[in-house]
Amino acid sequence: MPAINPAIDPGVGPRPFPYQACPHRGAALSPCPALQGATEMSEPIPAQKAPYGVNVEAGNDYVWCACGRSATQPFCDGSHRAVGLRPLVFKAQKSEEVWLCGCKASANKPFCDGSHNKIK
Description:
Largest sheet: 2 strands, antiparallel
Helix content: under 10%
Structural class: mainly beta
Number of helices: 0
Number of strands: 4
Strand order of the largest sheet: 1-4
């Protein structure tokens, strides 16, 4: 049975955590092994205690890692699925170098606000 996608299947609401569509088992209501033992909303972890300087291009969408677990920092690689957090999608307003938060504590996510200076 194919997984149900609430985004495209009308009348179907989101599944309660951790019962989500599972690519590992292919069943919509089977707990995903990647979610076993995960809490619904884990805290983000600092990927590093400094921002990432990144060149962005105007009009392009970028997916910033909000959980700190991605191997492709500062961008998302899907690791958040195991901890219940979601990445942040943003569109570059102009082509420039931006400083993306590496500590995941910024009040101006995805951009650095200096919060890494307060982390011990």
